[in-house]
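Lab notebook, bench 4. We co-purified these components, and the gel suggests they stay together. Before we commit to crystallization screens, I want a quick structural picture of the whole thing.
Request: model the full complex, all chains together.
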Amino acid sequence: MEDHSAIPVLEDEAIQFDFLLVDPQDDHVSVDAFLCIHRNNSEKCMQMDDIPCKFGGINFGTDREQLHPKAGEVPDIKASEIEAGEFEILNGLSSFCEDYLLDGEYEENGTELNHDSGAGLLKVVSGNNNQTDRPGANETSQKSDSSATTDQVDVCQRGLNVNDSDLHGIFSCTGDSEKSLDNCWFQYPTFTVENMEEDVSSVFSDGNGRLMSVKSGLISEQLPCRVTANLENRHIFPGQEVIESRLHIDGAQTHRGIQGCSAENHEEKRLRKPPKRFIDELSEPKSKSVCKKREVSAPNSKDKLSNVKAAKHHYKKSKAEVSFAEDPIGIAIQVPFGPLEQNESKVEEDSSPVKVKLDSQPLVVSSPKLKDLELDREAPMSESEEDNTTAVKSEEDGFGRRKHHVLWTVSEVKMLIDGVSQYGVGRWSRIKKDLFSSSAHRTPVDLKDKWRNLLKASRAQRDSKKGEDGKRNLAWRPLPKSILRRVNELATIHPYPRDLRSKC
DNA sequence: GTTAGGG
DNA sequence: CCCTAAC
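Here is the predicted assembly.
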């Protein structure tokens, strides 16, 4: 055990890769670039000038002696190739390279170049890395979901302090967006430079043996010292201005990426690979060539198609939407359940003070408009049965997109119940007209659906009561007994279509 | 246009 | 909440 712990990231001289840059047109996988790792000693890192060694056409400032292929672990690397400046892994990995992206799934092909000291070094590892198998990877990634953004930044700041994970870069470029992919300058994974004293933010291979860097937001030819892998956004055009470069760890997959020397990262935090939408949103609209458009699932109607288009269009245009989608923190207001406003429904059992909680529900995605919430402040309620009903902003839904989820408020539920008791089940339009005329977002169909859900809830509650008492195995939010009881009553009085009312 | 019901 | 068949 070395002194990794002190400065986890870069204390170690070497970084392990289990992915390599690949020329997809080649039958072999060749190293196009690599990482050099020294936090405070950039001079120690490779210099273009004194490079005896070439990797896939890229020069590295490292002495040959510094490369120590582990015996038996480098079956595919021939010394002669290294000497000749060619480092190729002949593992038939080309299949992985169709997308110019090596996902590092070549676990069997243990290849390691070990460099133990001094100037920079490359360690390519693909074999049985200790931390490779992570049964809990998925769970971990899910747990860290909400903090994904933060962690991404963190990863950036800490440079190569990435353990056993894949890095994916998110690159946003400005510049000539009209260029076709054919003119694409780079079609290789890129590297991102971290913690440089200079304003170098990224480096990548141009595919011709040159290692380019992004300095001061512009692509230039300069050899950086410290880079992290950037497996995505492989299409960079000359002259493009890089305005954003972010990294995240792919937590959805189990293969390894960079293995840093971090002890602190032992927990192996994994970040979920951002959804395509996330990537799209991070990119400037101009950089269409960088982030390919999303595929639209075949709609089955013209309306749907137009809706989707409208939605997409809206998405691109609406910054608010973007930030809203990215904002993991929303405001949730729990609306307590209470007795029906207009009737005598009595609250059974304990009636405790109203509770209005903020931020207690992770469900909520956006900040609701408070005015849309109906808070029954005067309504007493059962503590254990407080309603989680949360209203979510639902405006701006005029673009055909799926309506924002607007949770039913207690008042609405009560209104619905009243409506049913008044007009009977099935008169949704009537109920809507009479009782929900003010709430534009509730359609007769919504009322019908809600009633159906209420029925299910009440039935389930009854069932669970029959079985085990205390145990509440309801999948949905608990509803106040007072409400459910009324639903039950009404369901008895006004039979709902078909077998749905399998109770009574 | 409404409603029922499946997804 | 969406979609669609049936009315």
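Confidence is low (pLDDT under 50) at residues 1-198, 221-399, 469-475, 499-504 of chain A. Worth comparing against the SEC data before the next meeting. Chain A is about 20% helix and 15% strand.
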